[in-house]
């Protein structure tokens, strides 16, 4: 068996700015507090999982469910709570914000899209 010689050159890079990247999903403080409150009664669950399902006139609807384990393909956001994102939902959630909104007749977790270009009649957002 012969040994081969491999050479590598390392260059020092100076004055290089880091490129900011989008978080897959950000949570508002009210969303973090609500998820903490929901998980307080479920000690066997490690967090919540966000996914998408085919629905509505734009074709997608978000789902949220409790999860007991972290899957291999999930992306984890750690902001005091653990939120897992299904693999097929990662691109649709990129750059979005999860918020908890409480009104007189309803309370819900909503997804705000800062990149929105328009909405349809049902209120679900879509990009053009």
TrEMBL record:
Q: Which InterPro entries match?
A: ATAP (IPR016092), ATAP_core_dom (IPR000361), Fe-S_cluster_asmbl/transfer (IPR050322), HesB-like_dom_sf (IPR035903)
Q: Classify the source by domain of life.
A: Eukaryota
* Cellular component GO terms held in the UniProt record: mitochondrion
Gene Ontology BP terms: iron-sulfur cluster assembly
Q: Where is the Core domain?
A: 25-124
Keywords assigned: Iron, Iron-sulfur, Metal-binding
What molecular function terms (GO) are annotated for this protein? 2 iron, 2 sulfur cluster binding
Q: What Pfam families has UniProt attached to this entry?
A: Fe-S_biosyn (PF01521)
What binding partners and quaternary form does the record give? Interacts with CRY2, but not with CRY1 (in vitro).
* Family as reported in the entry's similarity comment: Belongs to the HesB/IscA family.
> What PANTHER family would the database entry show?
IRON-SULFUR CLUSTER ASSEMBLY 1 HOMOLOG, MITOCHONDRIAL, IRON-SULFUR CLUSTER ASSEMBLY PROTEIN
Function (record text): Involved in the maturation of mitochondrial 4Fe-4S proteins functioning late in the iron-sulfur cluster assembly pathway. Probably involved in the binding of an intermediate of Fe/S cluster assembly.
Protein name (record): Iron-sulfur cluster assembly 1 homolog, mitochondrial
